[in-house]
Design a protein that fits this description.
Strand content: 15-25%
Number of strands: 22
Radius of gyration: 23 Å
CATH class of the largest domain: Alpha Beta
CATH topology of the largest domain: Aldehyde Dehydrogenase, Chain A, domain 1
Length: about 475
């Protein structure tokens, strides 16, 4: 297939790709408004077949040795890399992100499979110290069982792969329901596993009605855990449903990350990194920096530099050369962001750049900077999930911490300072699941991703992410 062709959306049930369905939905290119393809909407029988397959696959996979799992997952990683350019182009077509970012995400999927497979084997059962009268005492880590996963559309391949790689590495099976906006990016990862010899049923893909699929999966006695990435309101609904059946969850929900810029920071570095990171994925990142708090002495310098740099970001179709920021995921995002901007302006904020939809086909919104935004503006408490940055002043450390920790979200926080003493205090005082100091990288293969309060609970990724799909059994054997 030429690398310009969009993958045909399909369900993946019991090792078989299925395009037949009673109903279909449209996949739109957010950069052109064109229909890319029709995705099949899974019916009740197909959902139940996926459940049965996940149970059968789990019984086989949990007994598969770590060496065999590593071999299959490594082979799949190699296949992903072989097909990386085609997969990346499909991702850009359905999501809109620049092609270079899509390529990076595809590579991340390959490395997630490799790292998770090895880490699961290295981080398995734990023997306890010898004790008189006991032949052995062991903490066993066993796979929890079939898992239902609901990744978001903003990183359509890597979010799903991060969940799946951890789960299958420890011996679980998984049913994944990709977002309807971006149904095919993850298919390439599963196809690679299929070609690498993954047993039938270990991974299944369902597409269609989110409410119908999630309800049926969570209510099924086959599913033992739920993993969700998305908005806080939807996560709360799924967690409440899971709670009725005492099923544990990993909930990676919304964020509203603060960035604290101190007088002693490297302002040139802070400006450059802040503008680049804010434009990533068109601001559609749960850990995207949004609320900037700048100390009085460097406020004017940072504000001028950031506004000029952010306004100059090249916006367009992610398939075009040199594009730095693509469209928003769907038309409703335009309306949501516009409403936040208008609300802030009505309450006294100053618009420094942007604040409007770009006059072209697709869901493009101008890079936007708001300054002097009052605390009662909606954007100070509501995650914009778009290319908007809010710039406000602060005078001293205590005021900065108070402002940074002033929302119900606590997923990520950032700060820039030239003082190690201040950096150490920030690590303690910034109340969030992840803290980045003098830089924005806070997601690594071996680090957990998770939040506090309205940003969710549990961990994705890292060794903690492996344990998220395990249950613990203690075995004590006395001497004969």
């Amino acid at each position: 297939m030429p690398d310009t062709d969009y993958i045909t959306p399909a369900l993946y049930i019991d090792g078989e790709w299925i395009t037949e369905a009673d109903r279909y939905g449209d996949v739109l290119n957010p950069a052109t408004d064109e229909v890319l393809a029709k995705y099949p909407i899974a019916n009740t029988q197909q959902i139940d077949r996926a459940l049965a397959s996940a149970q059968t696959g789990f019984e086989v996979w949990k007994k598969t040795s770590y060496d065999e799992r590593i071999a299959i997952m490594n082979a799949a990683a190699a296949i992903i890399r072989q097909n990386a350019e085609h997969t990346a182009r499909c991702m850009t077509m359905e999501h809109g992100k620049p092609l270079a970012d899509s390529r990076g995400e595809v590579e991340n999927c390959a490395t997630l499979l490799e790292w998770s497979a090895k880490a699961a084997a290295d981080y398995a059962d734990r023997p306890l110290n010898d004790m008189p009268g006991f032949a052995a005492r062991t903490v066993r880590k066993e796979p929890i069982g079939p898992v239902a996963a609901f990744p978001a559309w903003n990183f359509p391949a890597s979010l799903a792969t991060r969940k799946m790689a951890s789960a299958i590495a420890v011996g679980c099976s998984m049913i994944v329901k990709p977002a309807k906006e971006t149904p095919v990016s993850f298919m390439a990862v599963v196809q690679a596993l299929h070609e690498a010899g993954l047993p039938k049923g270990v991974v299944n893909i369902l597409m269609g009605d989110s409410a119908e699929i999630s309800k049926r999966l969570i209510e099924s006695p086959i599913i033992k855990k739920i993993s969700f990435t998305g908005s806080t309101p939807v996560g709360q609904q799924l967690a409440a449903l899971a709670g009725q059946y005492a099923k544990p969850c990993v909930m990676e929900l919304g964020g509203h990350a603060p960035v604290v810029i101190f007088d002693d920071a490297n302002i040139k570095k802070a400006v450059s990194l802040s503008a680049t990171t804010k434009s990533r994925n068109t601001g559609q990142v749960c850990i995207s920096p949004t609320r900037f708090f700048i100390q009085d002495g460097v406020y004017d310098e940072f504000t001028k530099g950031f506004t000029e740099t952010f306004a100059a970001i090249r916006v367009g179709n992610g398939l075009d050369e040199g594009i730095q920021m693509g469209p928003l995921a769907n038309p409703r995002r335009i309306g949501d962001i516009d409403a936040l901007v208008k609300d802030a302006l009505s309450k006294g904020a100053t618009l420094l750049t942007g604040g409007h939809r770009l006059d072209r086909a697709g869901n493009f919104y101008a890079p936007t900077v708001l300054a002097d935004v009052p605390d009662n503006a909606r954007i100070m408490q509501e995650e914009p999930f778009g290319p908007i940055a809010v710039l406000n002043r602060f005078s001293d450390y205590d005021e900065a911490i108070s402002k940074a920790n002033s929302t119900d979200f606590a997923l990520a926080s950032y700060a820039f300072t030239g003082s190690q003493q201040t950096a150490d205090k920030l690590a303690d005082d910034l109340d969030s699941g992840k803290v980045g100091i003098n830089g924005f990288p806070v997601v690594f293969l071996d680090s957990p991703l998770g939040g506090r309060r309205q940003s969710g609970y549990g961990s994705e990724g890292g060794y903690e992410g492996l344990d998220a799909y395990r249950i613990v059994k203690f075995v004590s054997q006395s001497d004969f």
